[in-house]
Amino acid sequence: MELRFIEVSRIVPDEDQPRRAIDDTALTALADSIKQHGILNPITVIPLNGVDGFRIVTGERRWRASQMAGMEAIPCIVREEENDAAGKTTEQLIENLQREDLAPLDKAQAIRMLKERLNATNREVGQRLGVSERTIGYLLDLLDLPETIAEQVVSSPNRPADGNITEKHARFLRQLNDEPELQSSLVEKIREEKLSADDTGRIARALKTNPDRREDILSASLEALPTVLDISGDTLNGPPPFSTGRAFVGYLEKALGTIGEIKVESVSGAELETVETAAIRVKEAIDRLIGELRAARNAG
Description:
alpha/beta; five-stranded mixed β-sheet; 15 helices; globular
């Protein structure tokens, strides 16, 4: 590797870069900073084959902001030609995760690309990126949403959603994938009433379990929803009531019956991996439950 100043006109972006959307306001602010202080952190590039130029590995925002700032040349760390496409994608993902929130849909698409290039499991991808297997699964779940909804999903760590569709909202919206009009109506309700993700989950559950009351559910306020459903607020807000072992067994047997109805031959080839990933997550949850039950029984 070597550090060189290279003309911005000889540098091109990477078409496989995970980031698709770049915030114009943030880019303008970065350009103003570069005008005052220059580029404090060089970008990383590799030589183009047969052309007097370079392709960006990391630092596309700095390169674009430098153009806006009128810079003719910028500091670059020049690497040998990158043959490990998976390694490059990993590095780009890690940089975006560390420096600025990447749009969740862009993140999910890049993770899918990385999985395919590595032929890896969610756990292996998570280890490579330094995040949990569950996080990888949740992000890949975004790809099951209609693209018009997935594009609206934003990262909102430790901040109120304030009418935005967050990754947690998206997990509940997926429950309505088989009913797009109902799903779109719930998205509109989230935005208009600034619903939290937990409230969205309660409404999604109510819509699924009360198909004959859907119009009333969507038009009701959160406060009026228990009355609309003729149930107590505690029942609506809480998990399924497992007050007895018999109720617990009944719930598990119902879930088992639902799983037993799944016919693999009805799943398209493109969806097989998605279904397999979901099945693995169910199995892991069941394994944890069995472990807890055995521990409780042994302790008793």
